[in-house]
Amino acid sequence: MIEVKNISKFFGKLKVLKDVSINLEKGECIAMIGPNGCGKTTLIKSILGMVLPSSGEIIFDNKSITKDIEYRKNIGYMPQIGRYPENMTIGQIINMIKGIRNSDEELDEELYHQFHIEQLLDKQMRTLSGGTTQKVSATLAFLFNPKVLVLDEPTAGLDPLASEILKEKIIKERNNGKLILITSHLLSELDDLISQVVLIQDGQIVFHKSVLQLKKDTGEDKISKSIIQVLKEKVA
Amino acid sequence: MSRILKYVILDIVKNKIVIVYTIILALFSWSAFSLEDNVAKGLLTLLNIILLTVPLVSILFSTIYIYNSSEFIELLVSHPIKRNRIWTSIYAGLCLSMIFAFIVGAGIPIVLFADLGKAIMMISVGTLITAIFVSIAFLSSILSRDKAKGIGVSILLWLYFALLFDGLVLFLLFQFGDYPIEKMMVGITAFSPIDLSRILILLQLDASAMMGYTGAIFQDFFGTKLGLFLSYFLLFLWAFLPFAFSLKRFRKKDL
Fold it and tell me: What pTM, to 2 d.p., does this model score?
């Protein structure tokens, strides 16, 4: 579904991504993990069109993303820290995004109802707590029933209840055949969600494996433990 | 585009700083006209206040607003909407809201006190100055990712246009006082929107008589239809060029 072909990215002299290629298929829930500054955010931002790669190309549904922005109709993005204009209300934000999307397709209002957003529509963004802002971001990401979901640290800042709701939603959408990309440092959170793991280090992909394979290779039964073992081996 | 524009305006108009700005402009304008015994003097006082505060508030508020919107802009970019439209909508939103604040604060008393010709001149210049400094704010905030640096650049630019440029012009006048540089001075004013506006209004108020020979040269140029047209054209250029440059950068920017 998404093909990343030989992407490199420089920020000045700093080479953040080094000739990265990866294939992301639908129906998978893929965790991008790696230490801080390893380039995972840059990779995700390249897919979203926020960062323009220095070389290489990204193919979405057989079309290059550099020329046509319409592919973004198929992507729902939930940022790590959502900051919205202070005086806009939740209702206005949702209406604005609906206006931009302008789609006739049926909306997926499951999270909207489960997070009780309808009771908060008149609240201004600056009065919201971090967790509530995350709920708004999550709702917006899922609202348009996109084929691809990009979630940056989705459960950070959410209370246990909301976090559980979101995780169940992620599993449900994965089973619906969507492609879900997650970056997270909370390894223990990932166990029942993901089907593939991509480890990125120093701007390069160390491996891209299915969870089963990873567990088999390391002999551990939890994703968090397997990853830590891989990381330790790297250091040693 | 109007989809974002509407919400950006709704957001800015409710901002406390903009509300305070409107009230202060209103206070200044009403008191300038009420305290001076004739309208021309009132206009002159108001002109000096407007040419100092309007650029400062427009450029600072806009710079801070743009930096504070960076995550929001990122979010918009992840949706199927062109970068051009996002950037232009925010520019239009900031311009329209600041102009709205200016017209409510200063425009109403100006229309009530001054005669129509001068009022139109004053309001159009205030409107253009607002747009120009919002435009310059876009330029200084695209130059650096760092908010403190961006605000610093904005303050320096304001300082340059509001104060330093005059000093520079005076310096030139003194240094080259022995040469016939009056005509050149007309050209030099094109490099500062604030001075351009000031001269436009002063000539309307017939205060140019106080400016001696230079004033007469100015009157010769700016007093004509062509001069007037050219000055407005330059002001429009000032409102357009910095923004156009920032737009070009924004299209290729890594967010």
Answer: 0.91
Nearest to A72 among B70, B78, B255 (CB): B78
Distance CA B243, CA B58 (A): 14
CATH assignment at residue A16:
3.40.50.300
Cα–Cα dist B127/B196, whole Å = 14
Q: Does A91 touch chain B (CB under 8 A)?
A: no
Q: Please give the Cα distance from B213 to A81 (Å, whole number).
A: 61
- A11–B contact, CB cutoff 8 A: yes
Q: Kindly indicate the confidence band of residue B30, based on its pLDDT and cuts at 50, 70 and 90.
A: very high
Domain ranges of chain B: 2-251
- Return the percentage of chain B with pLDDT > 70, whole number: 96
Chain A contacts in chain B segment 72-111 (CB below 8 A) = 72, 74-82
Give tens-digit pLDDT for B105-127. Answer: 999 999 999 889 889 999 999 99
Query: How many domains, chain A?
Result: 1
Predicted ipTM? 0.89
